Amino acid sequence: SSHGGPFTMASGGLSKAVKATMGRALRETGAALKEASGEEIFSRHRPIIMWYGQKPFTTNDTFIAPTANVIGNVTNWDESSVWYGAVVRADSNHPITIGFSSNIQDGAVVTTLPESTATLDTGFPPITHVGHYVSIGAGSVLRSCRVEDLVIVGDKCTILEGAIVESNVILEPGTVVPPYARIPTGQKWGGNPATFIAELTPEEKESIQPKAEKIHQEAWEHLTEFLPYGNTYLQLEELEKAGVKAQQG
Q1: What is the pTM for the complete model shown?
Q2: CB atoms within 10 A of CB 224
Q3: What does the DSSP 8-state code read for residue 144?
Q4: Which of 15, 37, 73, 225 sits a CA distance of 20 to 30 A from 51?
Q5: What is the rounded distance in angstroms from the CA atom of residue 6 to the CA atom of residue 201?
C-alpha cells in the first residue's frame, strides 16, 4: 500500500516522539554543562513586569509564555495561561484578574481605562475581570469589562468598558461588545455591534469548560517544555543578584 498501513503511521509517530525526546535531552545536557560552569543565559524580554511596586501574582501552574507581557496589578489564578504575544496590562492603578483555568490566547490584549478614570459611568471601578473557565480568543481586546465564568470569546473580539458578559455565553469571532452593553447568560452573540444570535444548546454549554481545560493541558505541555537547567527566561537583574555570570540568549 502506498500509505504504508497503520504500522508505518505508528512508527512515524514514534519516530517523531523519539526525535523530540532526543533533541530535548541534548538541549538539557548543554544547559546543564553551562550551569555547572556557573554560566547562565538570560532573555531581554520580560514576560512578568513589576509596575510601581505591584508585581503580577502567578501560581506554580500558571503559564506565561516567554513572549507575552503581564504587567502590574494582575492576579493569575491556578491553571490560567497567557499565550505568545498576548499582553495583560494593569499599569493604570486598576487591577486585572484572570480566573481559574482561563486563557488569554495569542496576541490578545487585556487592559483597563487610564488612571484618570476613577469610576465607570455605573459607579463601579474600571477593573477588568475574567472569570473561571473562560477562553479569550487570539487577537481579542478587553478593556475595563467583566466576563463571568464559562465563556468562550472568539478570535478578534472586542469587549469595551463597562460591558458585562454573563456566564455560559459564546461570542462569535469578530464580535464587538460596545461600552456598558450586557450579554445575558446562556446565549450566543455576534457581529458589530454585538447582536443576539441564538440560545445556547445544552451541547454548546457543555463544550465551554472542556475547551478551557484542553487549553490548560496544552499550556502545561508548554510550561514543562522549559528546560530544568539554566534560567533562560529569568531577568538579568535576578541573575546578577544571585551572583552568577550571565549571557544574553
Answers
A1: 0.74
A2: 9
A3: S
A4: 225
A5: 38
Distance CA 80, CA 134 (A): 9
**What is the residue whose three cell numbers read 490548560?**
216
Q: In sequence order, what are the residues at sequence separation of 6 or more whose Cβ sits closer than 8 angstroms to the Cβ of residue 127? A: 94, 95, 96, 97, 112, 144, 146
Percentages helix, strand, coil for the chain, rounded to the nearest 5? 25, 30, 45
For residues 51 and 73, the answer to whether their CB atoms sit within 8 Å is yes
Q: How far apart are CA 54 and CA 24, in angstroms?
A: 35
Per-residue pLDDT of the chain (249 residues; tens, 9 = 90+): 445 554 444 455 556 556 656 665 665 555 555 555 555 544 455 666 665 677 776 777 899 998 999 998 999 999 999 999 999 999 888 999 999 999 999 999 999 999 999 999 999 999 999 999 999 999 999 999 999 999 999 999 999 999 999 999 999 999 999 999 999 999 999 999 999 999 999 999 999 999 999 999 999 888 777 644 444 445 555 555 666 555 544
Radius of gyration over alpha carbons of the chain, in Å? 21
Q: What is the DSSP letter of 172?
A: P
Closest to 55 measured CA to CA, from 70, 43, 42: 70
CA 26 vs. chain centroid, Å, equals 29
What DSSP line would sit under 116-132, residue for residue? T--S-TTSS---EEE-S
CA nearest to 159, candidates 6, 31, 174, 167: 174
Pull the grid cell for residue 246: 550571565
